[in-house]
Design goal:
single chain; alpha/beta; Rossmann fold; 2 domains; 7-stranded parallel beta sheet; 13 strands; 44% helix
Length: 375
């Protein structure tokens, strides 16, 4: 008489990914989900999010089911402010726990944000293992709390001070992590309307753009053209930017509101003028691109902390938001692009500072932790 199969033994591993609200949390979360699927295609992956922020836009677009729970905005410091909304916290923890029970979660992996604390607490109550990734140089409350609940803690770099933290980089999309800029450059430049041989400056303020960067580069357009430098200017969807007039034979100045395939921009560029969000810094160093970083002057200078280790290693420049003027661009950015040995040294320093395999490393850790409980 044959024995019925043990359904518990063959049930696929169930992973709950949490890190909603901002693209800085969602993007690495989705990248790890993709990496898990590439290693173990039958893994059941559920994203936990809220109606606040970009969760309902970005997560379904990546093909993952999204479960919504009430958001719990939290202070950035561990203090009594957290106790002011116990009812809201409790309600969110219960909602998160209901999701964990329904999907039979074997592990929760969190990236911080409004939705992470309820997920961490619900997992802790059920003895579900927790894996944490902190992308920012200054960890937020959610992940600092989680680091007290688990030893499976990973970070973007050694500069991130978080309990149990192991530096691995930030999980990236394969199109970025596996980019060979030299091989991809001819096709990328042709696709974007850039000249094949001229030095190229990429300007980007992220998905929303940055008016400060837009104005500074547009104001230096004549000097850039005179120096023989072409520009790929991703201005942001909410910013109206018109490309400056170019005479016949002058270097191209291409303006785009947004570019879905940033790998093309990175392949085409020689140097970048950008903000220094954690994901931007991780992508540029992974592909080996030096940059002039203009930290957003908010949240206690967090973006400056992201860029400082790269600049200290020789992989870029840093300039305060208020000092990023057309004159600064003309003097400093042109100075780098017109000095090939200096640019090459900065490019190599940026490359040495980067990490390409964080997604794979984190995916393997998540699956190992999940299978230990699943067994």
């Amino acid at each position: 008489m044959s024995q019925a199969p043990d359904t518990a033994a063959v049930r696929p591993v169930s992973v709950v990914v949490t890190g909603g609200h901002s693209a800085g949390h969602i993007e690495p979360a989705m990248n790890v989900a993709d990496a898990i699927r590439r290693i173990a295609a039958d893994t059941v992956i559920t994203a936990l999010g809220t109606e606040r922020g970009l969760d309902t836009t970005l997560i379904p677009a990546r093909g993952y089911p999204l479960e919504l729970i009430p958001p719990v905005p939290l202070p950035r410091k561990l203090n009594l402010a957290l106790l002011k909304t116990p009812g809201r916290v409790l309600g969110s923890v219960r909602a998160a726990g209901a999701v964990l029970d329904r999907v039979g979660a074997d592990v929760v992996i969190g990236f911080g944000g409004y939705v992470a604390v309820p997920a961490y607490l619900a997992a802790r109550k059920r003895k579900i293992p927790i894996v944490v990734h902190e992308a920012n140089a200054r960890p937020g409350l959610a992940n600092r709390l989680a680091a007290r609940l688990t030893s499976h803690v990973f970070s973007a770099s050694a500069a991130v001070k978080i309990r149990h933290g192991k530096a691995i980089g930030i999980p990236l999309r394969p199109a970025i992590a596996e980019l060979d800029r030299t091989a991809a450059r001819p096709a990328a430049r042709a696709k974007l309307g850039l000249a094949p041989q001229l030095p190229a400056l990429l300007v980007t303020g992220g998905s929303q753009g940055a008016q400060r960067l837009n104005e500074a580069v547009l104001g230096a357009a004549a000097e850039l053209a005179a120096a023989g430098i072409q520009v790929l200017h991703i201005a942001g969807g909410k910013n109206l930017v018109t490309a400056p007039q170019r005479a016949a034979g002058e270097p191209p100045y291409v303006v785009l509101p947004y570019l879905e395939t940033m790998a093309d921009a990175y392949a085409a560029a020689d140097f970048v003028l950008c903000r220094s969000g954690a994901m931007t810094v991780a992508e540029l160093t992974a592909v080996g691109l030096a940059a002039a970083y203009v930290p957003l002057p908010l949240r206690g200078g967090e973006q400056r902390l992201n860029a400082e280790p790269i600049v200290a290693a020789g992989g870029g420049l840093i300039v305060a938001d208020g000092d990023c003027t057309s004159a600064w661009v003309a003097q400093n950015v042109i100075g780098v692009l017109k000095d090939p040995p200096r640019l090459a040294a900065m490019t190599e320093a940026a490359r040495r500072s980067g990490a390409r395999d964080a997604g794979k490393v984190l995916a393997r850790e998540v699956l190992e932790v999940a299978r230990e409980r699943h067994a």
